[in-house]
Task: inverse folding
């Protein structure tokens, strides 16, 4: 069965974007190295970051996002980001009018349905859940297996929180991965069951 991973770059004070949905310097580490992540060469990271993120990214079969992320990215023009096979969009609204039926995007109502759909589509590959409101809902539902963070040395002060509006306590195991890259600290925590 697939592993469900909540993932994003995050400020040291826990934000994935500012109040205007802008990531600011959160993705600067993705252009701060000399090792291309793929053939396009658009993303370059340090060797240390590459050695950590490339194997992880290669295992992702499905990404779960909320409708807000889908809308602000214009649905990635119908092409899942980063070579992912499918995107599951959590939404209470129908898919956009004129949306290409053959695009590998699945619109579902509720996080439980999203995780079930994503697990079916992913097989034994990773189901990635975008951090933020939807990620927080998946965490609160007890459906997250691990949390991965790329912590960037910046303080936002306010904005969109990594865990969304989660207000209850959730215990994680000690970090089993702590890797320092250039302008980023990669962390991985398994959820305590």
Result:
């Amino acid at each position: 069965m697939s592993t469900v991973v909540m993932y994003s770059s995050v400020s040291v004070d826990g934000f994935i974007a500012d109040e205007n949905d802008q990531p600011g310097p959160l993705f600067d580490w993705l252009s701060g190295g000399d090792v291309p992540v793929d053939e396009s060469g658009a993303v370059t990271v340090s060797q240390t970051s590459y050695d950590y993120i490339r194997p992880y990214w290669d295992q992702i079969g499905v990404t779960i996002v909320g409708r807000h992320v889908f809308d602000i990215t214009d649905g990635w023009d119908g092409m899942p980001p980063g070579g992912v096979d499918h995107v599951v969009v959590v939404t209470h609204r129908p898919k956009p009018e004129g949306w290409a039926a053959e695009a590998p995007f699945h619109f579902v109502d509720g996080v439980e349905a999203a995780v079930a759909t994503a697990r079916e589509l992913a097989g034994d590959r990773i189901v990635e859940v975008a951090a933020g409101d939807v990620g927080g809902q998946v965490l609160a539902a007890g459906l997250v297996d691990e949390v991965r963070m790329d912590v960037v040395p910046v303080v936002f002060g306010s904005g969109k929180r990594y865990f969304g509006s989660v207000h209850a306590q959730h215990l994680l195991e000690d970090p089993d991965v702590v890797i320092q890259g250039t302008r980023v600290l990669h962390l991985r925590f398994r959820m305590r069951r």
Q: What stands out?
A: The chain has a mean pLDDT of 95. The helical segments are 47-59, 67-72, 111-122, 133-140. The longest strand covers residues 4-11.
